[in-house]
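Possible race condition, two jobs.
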Amino acid sequence: MPTEPEHRPAVIVPPETLARIAAAGRVADRNGSFPAEGIQAVQDAGLLQATVARRYGGPGGGLDQMVQIISQIGRADPSVALIVTMTLANHLAQADRSHWPEDYYRQIVAEGRSRPILLNAARVEPDLGSPARGGLPQTRARRTATGWAISGTKRFVTGSEGLTHFLVWATTDESPARVGTFIVPAETPGITIIHNWDSLGMRATSSHDVSFDNVAVPLGQVLDLVEAGKGHQDNLGHAVLTLALTSIYLGAGEAAAEAFARFAHDRVPANLGRPIAETERIQTAAGEIDLLVGSARTFLFDALAHHRHDPLHLMRARLIVGRQLHAAAGLAVKTLGNPGLAAELGLERNFRDLQAVLVHAPQEDTVLTILGRSALTRFREAQETPPLRQAV
């Protein structure tokens, strides 16, 4: 009896939802606009709260279900998948840590049953750069009589135009200072979206800069408020979610492979008289693409299934998967030439989106440094440990 291929998740995003996302995604990508229709399609399918814990009335989906959802949406529109990922990951964190104000979170979940509630962190800053490289935010939370006043500018805030809640990482004006994530509803006065996202790929993520000018936040509307010295981003601790995020691009890579195969079967040159899929050159390229994309899927799902508590393994898997997906899209475009660069086929968009596969924090060089330090430490420790004497 035929069985499902290894690591092939069950289809949990309805085909009609994916078709709706894909159709709207082509328009949003062309215009560089927020993908409202794609997000609404996810909402209508009941998937935007898939990781809300059962104790809050949600379905209680875990990391595995989140990865299935975003990898499938990634085939239709990676920009929608990225925005959705940020919300699903925040619900997943609350399910695990219960760090939100309880009543406030329940209110958000209730609202999310009737309209898209989108949550995302605002962490990167013009001067600081990515928090993955260390440092504290220059965005300030000034103590007021009723709570906090947030001022500062954040960069690359994915989903900015459609977010219902900004999760703003800021340093307090206290002595000693603390750092935390302040929950800022999008309708709060003092928020300005600076429309400057104009990227090669992932054009519909609405990752604009956002300015906060004395934005009022109630006293208890803050997450993980700790001493400044303890507020650095934990790259090892985030390894599992970073690998999960890469599944978005697995979807894009599989879409690229599919576009390549479709063209190969449809293209019948007059001088050949048969589809180019029957030529050895195209078959060899298809084999290489299949090797790169298929093994990327295997590496990703194997790491999540069997090495979830080994951050170094997850980091290695992320780089391997990202590099292979990037290479596969490049090979597909190179092999097809001009048709591969034409928007009509769709491969050109897959290629552009996959340029972002390794730009998410921590970036490739940071990961390599972490892996390198670990490898050198292991070698040193092995040299310093005396060998066990064999029993006589």
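Job #2 (started ~2 s after job #1):
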Amino acid sequence: MRNQTVRAVNRLTARWAAEASGGDGGTVFTAAGVWPLLALLADGAGGPARAELEEALGISAGDAAGAARELLAALAGVRGLRAATGLWAGADLPLEPAWLTALPEGTRGTLTGDPDADGKTLDAWASERTDGLVERMPVALPQGPDAVRLVLASALALRLKWIQPFEEWPQTVHEGHWAGRDLVMLYRTTSLLDRVKVAHGPAGAVTLLEVVGDTGVDVHLVLGGPDTPPGEVLTTGIEAATRARPSTGASLLPDGNPGPGLTLRTVRSESPEPRLGISTPAFEVRADHDLLAHARLFGLEAAADRGSGSFPGISSTPLAVGSARQSAVARFHATGFEAAAVTAFGAVGAGLPRLRYRTRHAQARFDRPFGFLAVHRTSRLVLAAGWVTDPLPYEQPDREAEEAEFWEQ
């Protein structure tokens, strides 16, 4: 992946994160799914829409389509990651050959005008390209003057396993934000203290835990102070995870509480190796985003103006962006991580030991709302980001049902 493109996508991720609220159920989003579509739209845009899209992209419109193709091809080459694009247009909508030629390889289809039939086609594409993680295409198909003439979509699906799995235990939380709740808690220990780092941003210290995946993609859990807004925690985390902001590994940090949720001490131990203990809740987060609600962020203000066509390079028929949405999901569990997003633009138009050594012990606890980032290890491209406010509850097993099933077998 080109460094310029990676920086541009990460810039959009950071700007989006700065506006993230987390909501009651948290959030998850992937600018890596939005950016290529904005680039393809910029390639066919004119006037103010072209200038706004260039600002959102961080590169020139003339280079956008090529950068989008290269990015999507590189993403498809990441082990454990699927990336796809799709285009569906009305049979009577003329499309410019030069724009079509510049599109990445992907699905090409026709909108029949029948909302039920077209909806099933689009939903099937979204589900198949994300292995069922996202079941529906995030686009409405009204009839009449607001009928969708063209749909441009991307799908990303990431699955990875941890190099070192967690142990999973039910736990009742007794204090803090989740006090009184029964949660699925994940635990593990490692001798690699520097899997946890602390970075300092405008709003204070942020603790980052790197959980290493088996596919070249790692997940960073990001914890800020109790009163730090999610957007500021995520922004500092993104900068640190992508090495745009310096961070300090736990091996170089002083004893005490050098970062949120992080405790360091020097203790007597039977082993000379340091130890990092980790505890975090398992989580699943889903979110739907209306990109037009943040039209300025994505460079879509002029593009959404139906007063005149903004995409002469796409079609001689005037077109405007009538809808722009993303549906995303992320799951963090004992053995791995999954994330997927479908983005669609609709144009309408861890005996007593012998304690011989003194060594460093660290404990990282994620016991209140926190962020997460899925980062490609080589390029430092942020593939997905999000905020966890509602971790997975522990549900008592139905013993009677289990016994009945056992005797039936």
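The chain has a mean pLDDT of 89.
Logs attached separately.
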